[in-house]
Amino acid sequence: MKVSIIIPAYNVENYIGRTLKSCVEQSYPDIEVVVVNDGSTDKTAEIINGFSDVRVVKLTQDNQGVSAARNLGLQTATGEFCIFLDGDDWLETDAVKCLAEAYEREKCFIISTYKDAYLQDDTIKIVDNETPLGSEGHCAWNGYAESSKPYFRMNSSCYKLYDVNIIRENGLFFDSTIQNGEDGLFVCQYLQYVNNIYYLPNQLWVILNRPDSASRRPFNSAQMSIFHALDRMEKITQTDRDKKYFEWRKSERAYYLGWKLIQSKNRDPQVIKEVNQRLRQGWATYIFGETKLRWKAKYLFMMFWYVCHTYK
């Protein structure tokens, strides 16, 4: 079985070489590497073009975002299966082999996990014991309440082996109008066509935690699209257990983004109004949920702050 590794790349000149090297050095031979240069303005394209391995398929588009880049990769991929890898992360040498062998044996959706890596001056420190690991084996997917098992990592498109036929036959794609939560929405859509999951507790991806990564950047209004992703996921799943889960997720995101906006210099009245609305929708779920007292107090403070700044 051929596996396509799909990599969106935008201004990752310091990392893309290692990323591609980890792909072409895979112990599993039947792969292709589809790397999409998403309008980079640094030396990313130059480094990509420096790889002569015929298995590396090089694509370029104007800057349209990570979702559009992944979609182009999916359209181009010729493998029966695919995985997603970000342009600053890399794979362990046996990553594709472990996933492919697990699928050949189990014939179901294969989920694995990852190691964390951190930049320390000019070196990278890899920490392989931060990610919670479950027991290997089959897992019946009973909805998003299962996300309480953190090793599933359903909010990320990585660490999983996808059947390309399922993706194409059902018209699945990454929503380019959503800049935060698009991964989780894609996985949610894919899960609707999956009957069984096999969890492989192998840390096959190495995830680089950068100070300038998207998750660590200051507040910007595009981050609010997580709520549109969660709203759609809630409609797709349509179970009472999932409804409660997504109510909690939206209240937790309102808490997180609400505080990030206060700390930022963004005082756009429309954005403040939207955050205020989300805080008001989620307050009961958060305050009466299993959260620490200081977090409850912080949530109430934010509600007061947003009321003052919304109606001033």
Can you walk through the features of this model?
- The radius of gyration is 20 Å and the shape is globular.
- By secondary structure, it is an alpha/beta fold.
- It has helices spanning 16-24, 44-49, 66-76, 95-106, 164-169, 182-191, 226-237, 240-263, 269-287, 293-310; strands at 3-9, 31-38, 56-61, 81-84, 90-91, 109-120, 123-127, 137-139, 160-163, 197-209.
- The longest helix is centred in the C-terminal third of the chain and has 24 residues, at 240-263.
- The model has no long low-confidence stretch (mean pLDDT 92).
- Helix 7 (226-237) runs antiparallel to helix 8 (240-263), helix 8 crosses helix 9 (269-287) and helix 9 runs antiparallel to helix 10 (293-310).
- Helix content is 41%, strand content 21%.
- It has ten helices and ten strands.
- Strand 2, helix 2 and strand 3 form a beta-alpha-beta unit.
- Strands 1, 2, 3, 4, 5, 6, 7, 8, 9 and 10 form a ten-stranded mixed beta sheet that branches.
- Percent of residues in beta strands: 15-25%
What's the mean pLDDT score?
92
Query: Could you estimate the helical fraction of the residues in percent?
Result: 40-55%
Distance between the termini: 61 Å
Low-confidence parts:
none
Largest sheet: 10 strands, mixed
What structural class results from the helix and strand content? alpha/beta
Number of strands: 10
Keywords:
single chain, 312 residues, 41% helix
Per-chain topology:
Elements: E1 3-9, H1 16-24, E2 31-38, H2 44-49, E3 56-61, H3 66-76, E4 81-84, E5 90-91, H4 95-106, E6 109-120, E7 123-127, E8 137-139, E9 160-163, H5 164-169, H6 182-191, E10 197-209, H7 226-237, H8 240-263, H9 269-287, H10 293-310
Parallel strand pairs: 1-2, 1-4, 2-3, 6-10
Antiparallel strand pairs: 4-9, 5-10, 6-7, 6-9, 8-10
Helix pairs in contact: 6-7, 7-8, 8-9, 9-10
